[in-house]
Amino acid sequence: MYMSINTMNQDAIASNDVLGNLTTAVLVLDTSLRVCYINTATEILFEISQRQAEHIPLQNLLPGESRLFSSLKRVVTTGQALIEREVHLFLPASGEILVDCSMKVLDIDQAYVILELSQLDYQQRINRDENLHTQQQVVRGLAHEIKNPLGGLRGAAQLLERQLDSEDLKEYTRIIITEADRLQNLMNRMLGPNQHPEKKDTNIHEVLQHVRQLVDIEVDERLKFKIDYDPSIPELYADFDQLIQIFLNIVRNAVQAMHGVGLITLRTRIQRNLTIEQHYYRLGLLVEIEDNGPGIPKTLQDSLFYPLVTGRADGTGLGLYLVQNLVQRNDGTVTCNSQPGQTIFSVTFPLELGRER
């Protein structure tokens, strides 16, 4: 038996007017994800009335959407609130929109879930991406300027070492050479990979299993992996080695954040009706790397993929910068949602490119 918002207790009824006056779209769902109530903003967004929407499955309003439904089911199961940022939703009435999604179980009654959709300003997203691109170009320019004299510095230290008889003095030249090599490697990482991706049909689960095996060697039994794969996912047209580097960097970041103790979930899903870099795709691959660590500080979340941004004293701030660089080279996009106890890196690739080449 389905219940409308009018059958909730008096506190819920009192909040009805509050929800109705909000400018963000709010939906109240039962635990089967059927609509109990929508506010005025939702009626406008979906072009449907409260009476028409009541009792229908949310899947009818958002056909083909899998990521949001997976998150809602987690909220229902765990009772924990969840926020998904920059989610692409396809609305039959108006096409694709970009939203931040907030999901939580209603405090007044455990039988209901509230979903809030905050539509994002697409121009704001473009401006942020352009700012990131500008910073990347500046860093690459600086890396070139620093890299050029390093070769001369190293060569001069080698020549000097040959002229010295004292082993004590040679120790200083070795330090110069070692540090020059270290800086050279750092500059190479800042510049990113020079070679073009060598794309071929790739099984994403082979990539993730290889990453898991590499990390297993570095950790002990206090770190656990959970596998949640969709076996129906077709092959991805991408560079195998670059995919390894992408997910190895993300997983190692998670391990370091948790100090080698915790749970990392590797999840794959099909996505439908998605947009990447203003290109529309009917079919895509979503890979999620989830950990139950302390989370990423809010002060870092907006600049997470910027070069030289790190939350660790010994970090270079280039790992996630390189991740984004490699993801973009393989026509994908990467985002992160983090709160204490749950951090999810979401990497999305189109699945149509291999068939169209």
Automatic annotation (TrEMBL):
Xref: PROSITE patterns: HIS_KIN
Main enzyme class: transferase
SUPFAM superfamilies associated with the record: ATPase domain of HSP90 chaperone/DNA topoisomerase II/histidine kinase, Homodimeric domain of signal transducing histidine kinase, PYP-like sensor domain (PAS domain)
Record GO terms (molecular function): ATP binding; hydrolase activity; phosphorelay sensor kinase activity
Stretches assigned to the Histidine kinase domain: 141-353
Catalytic reaction list: ATP + protein L-histidine = ADP + protein N-phospho-L-histidine
Domain of life: Bacteria
Enzyme Commission designation: 2.7.13.3
Record's keyword terms, sorted: ATP-binding, Hydrolase, Kinase, Nitrogen fixation, Nucleotide-binding, Phosphoprotein, Transferase, Two-component regulatory system
Biological process annotations from GO: regulation of DNA-templated transcription
Function of the molecule: Member of the two-component regulatory system NtrB/NtrC, which controls expression of the nitrogen-regulated (ntr) genes in response to nitrogen limitation. Under conditions of nitrogen limitation, NtrB autophosphorylates and transfers the phosphoryl group to NtrC. In the presence of nitrogen, acts as a phosphatase that dephosphorylates and inactivates NtrC.
Protein name per UniProt: Sensory histidine kinase/phosphatase NtrB
Species per Swiss-Prot/TrEMBL record: Methylophaga thiooxydans DMS010
Lineage, broadest ranks: Bacteria, Pseudomonadati, Pseudomonadota, Gammaproteobacteria, Thiotrichales
